[in-house]
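Please, structure for the following, as tokens.
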Amino acid sequence: MDKKKKSTEVKKPAQIQIKGYQTIPPTEGLSINPNNPTHHADIINVLFSNEGLALISFFSRTPGLNVEECRVSFSHALAKKIVDLLCQHLNYYPKSASPQIETKKGRVSKNP
């Protein structure tokens, strides 16, 4: 009997393209690296330090495994600017933390 082999190659799109109205704030005058990949994230994990830094890890879901795509560290001041930009652009200003954001003890996490 001749068994046919199936290809195990996974074909990914060459580039994720996201179109929008404008970049906020504008990137004019900034050096943009076209070689940086664009990632899709399904899960976000945030760590706040006592030294005034925040670390965000982005994960994507794959069958049977969550894979970290990238992580970014920045100051609390920049974190606040990111939140302000997201709230302004999405016209979403929560009065308190989402009930989906809970600590391991089941309590809603507080802002640092």
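Strands lie at 43-48, 53-62, 65-75. Confidence is low (pLDDT under 50) at residues 6-13, 107-112.
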